[in-house]
Specification:
The chain is α/β, with parallel strands linked by helices. It has 14 helices and 18 strands. The longest helix has 16 residues. It binds aspartic acid (ASP) and magnesium ion.
Amino acid sequence: MALIVQKYGGTSVGSVERIKAVADRVLKSRTGGNDIIAVVSAMAGETNRLFAIANQLCDAPDPRETDVLVATGEQVSAALLAIRLRAIGQPAISFLAHQLRIFTDSNHGRARIKSIDSESVLQALKQRNIVVVAGYHGVDAKGDVTTLGRGASDLTAVALAAALDADLCEIYTDVDGVYTADPNLCPNARKLDRISYDEMLELAGLGAKVLQHRSVEVAKRFNVPLMVRSSFSDIPGTWVGHEDQSMEDVLVAGVTLDQNQSKVTIVGVEDRPGVAAKIFGPIAAAGIVVDMIIQNVSADSRADMTFTVARADLKRALELVEVIARETGASGVRHEDQVAKVSVVGCGMRTHAGVAARMFEVLAKERINIEMIATSEIKVSVVVNNRYGELAVRALHDAFLGAGACGPPAGAS
Ligand code: ASP
Ligand code: MG
């Protein structure tokens, strides 16, 4: 007998038929006396719809009221699932965050969970209920509704699993699991049986949308075993857990593409202490996230400083940078708005050398110019012209993960 937290995403509860199917699945999971907590997202498209209505009334809707509004999507799904479970003879009870005392800070729209009181859930389970929880929201010390960030029903599920020391947290979605690449880009992408928390964090951060980033952080910190799987089939999904030897033997777990990047270069910056701080201070203060940064120093003690920002932030970043360039006596600012970031991720890189070199060879063979490079312990990312982003992903996927792809380089470690 196990305690299982299941999370059902928006498409999984997207219609009356889908909710019926979820109820059947929940019931089936109960076989053998398992206790089930089902966390639900809003029905597909509902959260966007609610945000859009608020935006029709106001350009910048009040954050507190927006949270009151958008949290209703999950309230609807939770009630509907509990209604269906009861209709098929299964005792069930739905809960909102204030009833479970899912306490958060007061940062509306991106609140952090501080504590969860497991008492009411345990009581309801003891009475043989299926506990249905509306995801995505919490309550602050004032009793106000907060939301935890887009996609955060995953986080509600993982946080509950951690608080209740659940045996398993299953994330039900509309894909079979975590793939080696986006199957729309790489027809031969395949589902991974297992992936480490660290790899999943990189993939989630790089735009793989299967799991919300913060939920993976919390799962790693509290050792919550995760399974990402489809609510449309019975195929086993992808396990997300701690790294083990078998994962290290896999050189590259996945290849990702981020096409929402742009690149800014400040040309001819003076090469002296304090210049980087002068440039990046105001950008950070404006809340713009800078990803990769490269500095090239030339012989005449002038440097070119190049960095990437999300394309949505480019205009604001350029406005700031033009001013900074004038103030610091730089000779000019250039930008390229259509760049892509292509990354290979795998914890095998911790113990095997040569991945970056192999990646550069593959791109050279396709005659794709690399504009920037960044590495971490388990990731190599390059910036290329967006025109070649998809080609780069396919070539790298073939080389590292295709049929006949290379394993760890012989003798390299
Ligand atoms: N409904 C929320 C969103 O669309 C939360 C979630 O689906 O996880 O972002
Ligand atoms: Mg989601």
